[in-house]
Each structure stands twice: as structure tokens, then as C-alpha cells.
């Protein structure tokens, strides 16, 4: 007895193949089974090609991710010259541009601004310390007010941090170590001790910033 269900399945298969590859051309003298087999073979070959292409793309992505530099992987990518912001995610690219602009405006090495930002907040504008310091450069509200910036705006936050670094560099004759210590502990403490105060937090802070800066 003819199994009508099997015939229906075959017809559905033919219809699907015809829809994907166009109406099958009838070959004079060719059997129905041969025509169907060729169509299926063509479909399978196309599917395998797509799978191989996808695997190759994934392999290339893995290789690219494995060879990315640490700066591209997550830190602020700021150098002495032009920054390769095209290599960064959009948020990091914006921050890198803000750092460059603020550094130029206040004549501070952008690497120093970047090192302070990385140490203060990891470059996170949403960071708020238990003491109330805000944003990328961790500006206290009173400090931000004295600098004339809105600490909740990322661009202004970076500008405020760069401006404050400039003030500290000027206050300590361009001594980067003392300026960084003053950024953390305040200029009064640095003046009182004639250098980096004997606070473990400040000493660790200065070491980390200078390690990133150099």
C-alpha cells in the first residue's frame, strides 16, 4: 500500500528546496530521484559552507581578542601623542578624548591625568566613594565647586581633575610625586611633611599612579 504520509513529506521537501534554490530545472531523461538528490546535495553543500564561514569568523575573533594589548582590553588608552580612540569601546573612547582635551587645556601630561583617573575610579564616572567623592576623577563636591565644574558631568569631572592637578603641580614646583600626593591627601598634608605624608593609603596611591604614569 502506498504511504501517503511519506509522499506528502517528499513533496514538502521538494517545495522547500524549490523555494530556496528556485524551480528545479527538468533534465530530459533524468529520474525524479536523481533530480531530488542533486538539489539536496546543493542545499547541504551551501549549509556546510555557511557553517565553515561562521567557524572561521569565530576563530579570527578569538585570535584578535587574545592578542589585544592591555590598554585595549580595559584601561584608558592615552599616550603622549594622538590616542587610538578607534580601538576603544565608545564609552572609553569618549573618556580618552575628554582626558586629551583637559590635559591640553591645563598643560598637564595626559598620561598623568589618565593614571589618576585609573587609580581613582578605574575610569568609572558612576563611581561614588563612601566619603562622597564623585566620578572619574573622584572630586569632592566642595573641590568641584571651587574648580567651577559639575562633578556629575563626565567631561567637566575630567576637566576639574586636570585643573586640580595643574594647581598641585604649580604649588609644588612641578614635582609630580608631591602633586599626586596632594591630589590624594591635600596640599596642607604634603607641605606639613615636606613630601608624601606617612599615610599608608596615600603612599600606596602615589606608587600606583606613578607606576601607571611611567
From TrEMBL:
Residues 51-78 are annotated as: Disordered. Residues 99-195 form the Transglycosylase SLT domain. Pfam families: SLT. It comes from the Bacteria. Residues 64-78 have a biased composition (Polar residues). CDD domains: LT-like (cd00254). InterPro entries: Lysozyme-like_dom_sf, Transglycosylase_SLT_dom_1. SUPFAM superfamilies: Lysozyme-like. This is Lytic transglycosylase domain-containing protein. It comes from Selenomonas bovis.
